[in-house]
Design a protein that fits this description.
Length: about 100
């Protein structure tokens, strides 16, 4: 069963721009300037998306002079993947046992 934390996390990364940010940060640590260039989003819009990701615990910040770099927290993605793995295993068991509710 998916927890409310998992459901909240899915809502956070379901936004196309936030998913793009997560994907970019999986490959390298980037600052806001890089993320604006890569996503094409306006800086204020991007900052709002980064705030949502930070508050959800998906990314963390690293100050570097006058810039702020963002890093993806891999353990969050791993936990989400594990939840989906469990869901897939439940579905596999359901199919194998031909379990269905009578009408």
């Amino acid at each position: 069963m998916m927890t409310s934390a998992t459901t909240d996390l899915i809502r956070v990364i379901a936004d196309p721009v936030r998913l793009q940010i997560v994907t970019l940060l999986a490959h390298e640590t980037l600052c806001t300037t890089h993320l604006v260039e890569e996503t094409g989003a306006r800086q204020t819009n991007l900052s709002n998306h980064l705030r949502v990701l930070r508050e959800a615990g998906v990314v963390e910040t690293e100050p570097c002079g006058r810039f702020t770099y963002y890093k993806l927290k891999p353990e969050v993605v791993e936990a989400l993947a594990a939840d989906f793995g469990e869901l897939a295993e439940t579905a596999r068991t359901t199919i194998e046992t031909d379990r269905k509710r009578a009408c």
